[in-house]
Predict the structure.
Amino acid sequence: MRTGDFDYALPEERIAQTPAEPRDSSRLLVLDRARPDGSLEHRSFRDLTDYLRPGDLMVFNRSRVIPARLYGTEARSGTRVEVLLVRRQEPGVWQALGRPGRRLRAGAQVTVEAHDGSGAAQVEVLAAQENGLRLVRVSDDSALDGLGELPLPPYIKETPDDPDRYQTVYADSPGSVAAPTAGLHFTEPLLDSIRSHGVYTAWVTLHVGLDTFRPVHGEDIAEHKIHTEWFELPQDTADAINDTRRRGGRIIAVGTTTVRTLEHVAQAGHSEGTTEIAASVGDADLFILPGHRFRLVDAMITNFHLPRSTLLMLVSAFAGRERILAAYEEAVRREYRFYSFGDAMLLL
């Protein structure tokens, strides 16, 4: 496989700049793998329950996006700089990206003023790392809400009036630097409707890093190294998954981050010779490509992904590269909205 095998053309006007209002009014493209003719259905997201069965289990990622984009002044030069926190290593210490990079060498000190002018925090660059990353220390990372901004993707040019529109309604575990966007379509009434339909819900946490969304550089996919992302699959979710599998229900993953979490845990269990899922905490580094054997996920809800991205490769592994690219082509033709604030797909 080559990276170019996962490329497609997308007109710029198809990139959604604002979220759908209300959340569940977005469109839903349904691809059923059991249909030999590859035909698609075009629905509204609030029609999702039409495709659910009593006894199914839907698993959601409850991670919350943190205000990880910091703007400040570098002490020696007085230059205005940007520091984007990517992953917390320990209290106060983060992997980060920054620009201009020449001003963020080891030893650089950056002062970040609070939004309300009530104080400031210091960011010290500890070391340079691979791929342009920096290791930085933030003097008070408990105060990020008053210091930083939500790190919207670069293809979104408009900042939402309500920052919570880049959060899922159930997000309660801060740590992501990008939203698990498949969950943005859900409302509390829709979740209530899903449960009243006899469908169970469960939760995992995976803190999303920027590497998940970056295009793969280079044509040899085997040379791409995907970064690890911290996850937690609690005991009650493990119990719900095991019970659903025993009853013959389907495991429906909401978002590719949930897919990665479930399949990472399932693969680890398989290597230990068990088919039961156990509670687990750690770092997920599973790179899902066509040929992957899905051990847990029976269906997934996902958004439309960037060309040449690991996420497009993941959904291609689940539904087939040719079928996914054909579905994307039809979605473009029918003027679906793409990427983080865009429409959704249901892959059955």
